[in-house]
Each structure stands twice: as C-alpha cells, then as structure tokens.
Amino acid sequence: MLQNQNLESYEKFFETAGVLDGRQMEGAEITYLAFKIDGRWQLVRAKLFLEGISGKALAPYETASVRVGRHTLVDLGTSVKQFLDDSLTASALHFPEGICTFKCDTYGHSTHVTDLHHDGLREGTRLRMLTITGENTSGQFSEPVISWELKSHAQPYDSLQELTHIYGTGFPGGGQLMIEIIGYQTTAIETALSTINGSVATICQALLKGFSPEKASLGYIVYKSNIALQRGSFTGSEIEWSTGASFQSGCVKLTVEPGSVVKCFARYGGITHHERWVVDPTFAQNSRRNTYETFDEGLVALKSLLDGPYVKGRDARQVETALTWLIWMCGFSPIQIGGNSKTQTGPDLIVAAPNGNLAVIECTTGLLSADKKLPQLVARTVQVRRKLDAVGNASVQLISVLITTRTREEVRAELDQATRADILVATREDIETALSRSIVSMDANALYDFAVATLKERQLNHKQPFGAPI
To answer: Which of 322, 435, 419 is nearest to 377 (CA)?
Structure first.
C-alpha cells in the first residue's frame, strides 16, 4: 500500500522510464534478499532492473534464515507494473519458491525517485531509480550470525556480503526494507563501433526502438595531452541513422588531431544518458597506463581484483595491490607497507604527489569501521606527522584517506564519523571515476589539492570545524 502523497511520483516514474510506452520490458528481472523473521519470510532488499542485468535467472538459495533469488519477469508471467501493483496492494511479493512479505508502517509504503543512481554513475550511465521503502527492521538480524550460518550450509558462502554481491541485491544496510526499481538508459555510446583512426573519429550512438532520432543528440570534448581542444554537439538530424534488430544506430565522423581522445555524451531530449571515452588504439595519452596495459590489456586483472567477492586475509590484500596500480597510473608514487609481515603495523599504503605532499591510506572491502580501520588510520597518520616534523619536514602536507570498495550508499551511516576524524573517504564511485579518467594523463598535484578541498567541503557541510590537514 502506497502513501497517498507518493502515488504521483510512483506513476510518473513509470511514464518517464518508458514502461508505459508500449514496450513489454521482456528483459526485466528482479533479484531479492529475504530473512525469516518470526517464522515468515520478510523481504529485506530487492532490485528490479527494467532492462535486466544478466538476461537469466539464478537458482534460489536458502538457509534456515536467509533466502535469495533472481527471476526474469517473463518467467514469473507478469509485467513490471503489474508485479509491483500486486505486491504493494498485498504487501507481499510472490515468487515460485514462496511468498515474501513487504511490511510497511501505519501510513503505507513511501517512495523516492533518484534521477542518477550510483550503480549507473560508476559505469558512466544515467539510471533512474524509484525506491519503495517499508518499515524499519533495525536490530532484527545480525550480519555476523547470518554470515556464520552461510558458512555452515552444504553450499557455503563466506559471508552475507559475498552472497549479496553474487545475486546483485546490494548489502542490507540501515535496517530499512527496500525495493529499488532501476530504469534503463534510452540511448548510449556504441563502444564497439566507436574509434579513432589517425585524424578521424567515428562515434556511434545506439537508440532504443520507438524513440525519435530527432530528439537524440551527441556531445563531445576532444582532448590531447590532457588539454581540451574542441567542444561541440551533433543534433539528431546531423547523425546518420540506421535500424537494427534491437535498436537504432547513428554514427558521425569528426576530424581530430592524431593522438587525441574524445569524451562522448549520448543524449535524448536534451538529457545525457551515457558517457564514454573513444580512443585511437594505436595511441595512449597516459604513458603510465600504457605501460601497465603491456601486461594487463584493458585492465582486466586490475578490475577483477577490485570487483570481489572478497574474503579476509590474503585475498583481501589483493585489493591493496590493485589500488596501488591504479594510484600509480593517476600520477602518484605509492608504496605498500602494511601488506608485508615485517611492516604490518604500518598503513596499507603511503602515497606521494609529485610536489612531495603525502597521503596515508587504508583500504577495505567492508564498512569503514571494520577491523578498527578508522582509529588505526588516525594513529598512523599522527605517527607519520610526528616523524616528518622531527626531521624538519613540517612543510609537507599530509592527509588521511580511507578507500573502500563499497558504494557511498552502503557506508553513508559512517561518513560523519570519518569526516570528524579528518579522514577523506573514497568509495566505489571514486574508484570507477579514476579508472575512467586514467585513459588520459592526470595532474597528481591537482588531484591532491582537490582531495584536500573535498575534505574541507565535507567538514563544512557537516558543520564540523576544519583544521588544516595534519
């Protein structure tokens, strides 16, 4: 049952997401996590992808108190809108493996529309999201207890984090029951067809069938040596369109200087839906990334280390290695310290900018407070500061950074604590941005200054007094 004031945003989301434009949304799928509470299966977290994320279901998995599953709506024999209408009316979701209740408070379920979902931002994609929330169940389940139950199953998982990562439900933080409906982008850059050959850039844009090419447009910025040389746009009428089996495809050609890269923006109705870099495969503007890719083409190994799933110990240390590679490609000079048994009392990384300013970094695949990361980072930064001051390097600037592979949404409850401790938190979104931007040479000194300014801004926003970095 929806609260009356939320009915309008609920209906409006489906209109703007295209569900009511005659499309059947055959690729739509839902993935969910439920806990058994008081003898009944209670939906905790679900994500409904209007265009799907895999195109196939995953077999349900169940223990005494945990159940997950992923189904296409075709398999469920229903449409997106009908499935949600029925679920909200009954306060329950019906799956082949059983019913999961979706409780709400006295006033009903509430809704919130997000125009730019974080799952899309890290991939350079606009994903509209409708969040439907139920009652708050804080304190009704224990993550450590559930993780140890998963370890004991005939088909074991190491943790709840690993299970939710594989099924794509998102980690259940905050205790709020939640369904997220994530819309597709209407248009996107066709990466496979877009390239640069010498002085000619070919840029191709895909557009879903049923949408007017006249309303599409393509924006671009041409870079060389990290300097923007050209900026402009092509209107839909200037793009040459053809119709394929699944979508419409439009291409343009643009004259550029040899060795350039182009940042492209696919738009519809004046709104950007997707961004991508287009490059000449025979050139690379970032010599550090080019050198690294000699042994890891396309950053495949690096990305696999960052994507998990993770376990404590040796495997989790691989994330530190991947971040060291990425930080080096961004122009810094990083060293790993804590990963060695002889120096394990030190921080995970220490990073130097070209101008000599330093950052003490801790890395985690979990929450910010896991394994006492926050207090350890503060203590280790203080140790470094004292050492620098004692040997006449008081002018060297020093900041504390905690990098997590979790999303900002997953750690938002802990961000205030980190900010008050003068710690800059970098999340999954920041990692994805660095991966994308590393295709061009980066000014590490400017990035360091931006990090300091970002920490200051966050402290001011949280109404905390800001002291200069340690």
So the answer is: 419
